[in-house]
Amino acid sequence: MTSLFTAAKQCLDSVAPDEKIALTRTAFAALREGKLSLDDDGVAPLPIDVPGRPAKPRLVMPRDVPRRGLGSDDGRAALVHAVAHIEFNAINLAWDAVYRFRGMPEDYYRDWTSVAHDESRHFTMLSARLAQLGHAYGDFDAHNGLWEMAVKTADSCLARMALVPRVLEARGLDVTPGMIVRLRSAGDGATAEILEVILREEVPHVAAGTRWFRFCCEREGRDPELTFVDLLHDYVPTGLHGPFNLDARRAAGFSDEELSMLADA
């Protein structure tokens, strides 16, 4: 029986988006049907590297990513492209979480395989919307912030769970409602409906990060709230900036203490 870790690495390394999505769907179905082994294959994960991705989009500093108004098709396409890039990165992030961190409970691997599958569907929806707007993935510059955090947390499942799902991906819970309002005001209900689906499904993704962050804290005998604050100080020294979607974050498992800390930051 093929190992899930082998399948995860294959998905992670795939360069072409269409192939990565097809492999992700195949692996998700195979795991659900009991055709992939969750036993550690005894092969240590390779050091983290650049994941499989196409030559475009060109990666630039975050400040150099184009920001355009939503009053034109090109402006809305730039926004859709930015979100599509996040979702493409999220596929790789989910598979790296599967591939890299061994010795976790089986439900951990099922959770992140399911997340990879969801993110691939989100990317497909956004790619189709881009095509309707006359563009394709790669037409606009993008940044690499999500993967840079993956590299920084490659040696710690605890840090990865805290800082990728609960910081970077949770930011989507905060900003997406405002994007939906702006899109509807601009008359783009089609894009707004896609973002509503993504927002609804990202809550359980962040919740998976919360669940496994707390598992790792318990395993290491660490207090989750204090550990989260310490990790923020170490990895996000500039702090997190609101406004925060407290209802969505609460649904994703943030404690009252953590929400108070965010509000006071």
Describe this structure in words.
This protein is mostly helical and 265 residues long. The chain has one domain: Ferritin (Up-down Bundle), CATH 1.20.1260. It has ten helices and two strands. It has a two-stranded parallel ribbon with strand order 1-2. The N and C termini lie far apart (49 Å).
Overall shape: it is globular
Q: How much strand? A: under 5%
Order of helices and strands: EHHEHHHHHHHH
Q: What number is the mean pLDDT?
A: 94
Radius of gyration: 18 Å
- The amount of helix comes to 55-70%
Q: Judging by the overall fold, what is the CATH architecture?
A: Up-down Bundle
Helix-strand category: mainly alpha
Number of domains: 1
CATH topology: Ferritin
Q: Spans with pLDDT under 50 lasting ≥5 residues?
A: none
Side by side, the strands of the main sheet go: 1-2
Distance between the termini: 49 Å
How many E-type strands? 2
What top-tier CATH class fits best? Answer: Mainly Alpha
Q: How many helix segments?
A: 10
Instruction: Note the main sheet.
Output: 2 strands, parallel
